[in-house]
Amino acid sequence: MNGTNLFKIALRALNNNKTRAFLTMLGIIIGVASVITMLAIGQGSKKSIQAQIAEMGSNMIMIHPGADMRGGVRQDPSAMQTLKLEDYYNIRDEGKYISAISPSVNSSGQLIYGSHNAPSTIYGVSQDYLTIRQLSVEDGDMFTDQDIQTSAKVCIVGKTVVDNLFPGGGDPVGKVIRFNSIPFRITGVLKSKGYNSMGMDQDDVILAPYTTIMKRILAITYLQGINCSAITEDMTDQAIEDITSILRRNHKLKEDADDDFTIRSQQELSSMMNSTTDLMTILLACIAGISLVVGGIGIMNIMYVSVTERTREIGLRMSVGARGIDILSQFLIEAILISVTGGVIGVILGVGASFAVKYIAHWPIFIQGWSVMLSFIVCTVTGIFFGWYPAKKAAALDPIEAIRYE
């Protein structure tokens, strides 16, 4: 019996039981669609995080006070005093691989202008902060070195701050706002950057001279952090080694002493976030893949039922010359047709569901060709694997016993 006849017989058998065949496919359809959708969401999140980190500057380096252990309690790094202005000056003057550097101090409070107010955070930085974070002033100007030296009460603000304090649409440049009880004159407005992948509003920000925040708001002499950029991304590791050497010398640390500061780079952050999203993607895909296994078991069950129902038919075919391999091929073709058809429908639904997630839930998605191919191949292999045993059982039937079967 040739392959064409076997294929026609398999199609006829499935056509005679359309509803049962569709319900059998359903497990495969759901499994494939789930795998594609979950992988698209996972990869979309990964791409979004990578883009966000790239926007912040792939060569960015962040220095924070080390987590000090006192009495068995890990202290809040923002409250530690291991970073001084001297550290900032030394890294700025001696760092061989640094292209831009800025101190960082911040305070949260209430912004007030007239009858409008809103909670926000004010950051004390230098002019280099714009270069490091890839920010730009859209209206007005950045504060000057003179403003830093005199601890001037000036600031630049983000779009969200402007919308909250100036809902009427007036020009904020030159206006005086209050942060808690301290007045600040707005010298410029930052270009909008929108929300990042973490859902944080990057425009809800106020930047002021770091000396102003340290003296007039926080009344501190230490820094809460230092941000800088390596000359190139490839020089990040060299820059970190250089910074570490300078800080250990400044802090008079012995060779066997631990660092009392922490240095993080965007490469490290990117690697950590990528590994986390990859793990979550694999977990989601495994959960969705369970549906494929369930679908395969459904195929096996239905093929068992089909073999039992058609025992006499099998006996008749074998009595007129059909070989065991023909019977095996016939039932295996039926199982493969169910899984492949279910796989095609699942791919279509999976792609459609991924775009539905993007446009309805506004989640980032990224459909990779390999994920579609992998899902399709897995569902085909599932059909062959779970259809083999029932088909083999059918091929092993004794023709005489099969004809006599009631």
**Euclidean distance between termini CA atoms:** 26 Å
Helix content: 55-70%
- How much beta, percentage-wise? 15-25%
Q: Which stretches of 5+ consecutive residues score pLDDT under 50?
A: 68-73
Oligomer state equals single chain
Main β-sheet, in a few words? Answer: 6 strands, mixed, barrel
Major sheet: order of its strands?
4-5-10-7-9-8
Structural class: alpha+beta
Q: Which whole number gives the mean pLDDT?
A: 82
Description:
The strands form two sheets. The chain has a six-stranded mixed barrel with strand order 4-5-10-7-9-8. The longest helix is centred in the last third of the chain and has 44 residues, at 266-309. 37% of the residues are buried. The chain is elongated. The protein is built from 13 helices and twelve strands. It has helices at 3-16, 18-56, 85-94, 128-132, 145-149, 159-165, 210-218, 236-250, 266-309, 311-319, 324-361, 369-395, 399-404, and strands at 60-65, 69-70, 73-74, 98-113, 116-125, 137-140, 154-157, 176-179, 182-190, 206-209, 225-230, 261-265. Helices cover 56% and strands 18% of the residues. With 406 residues, the protein is α+β, with helices and mostly antiparallel strands. It folds into two domains: 3-52 and 272-404, no CATH class; 83-259, no CATH class.
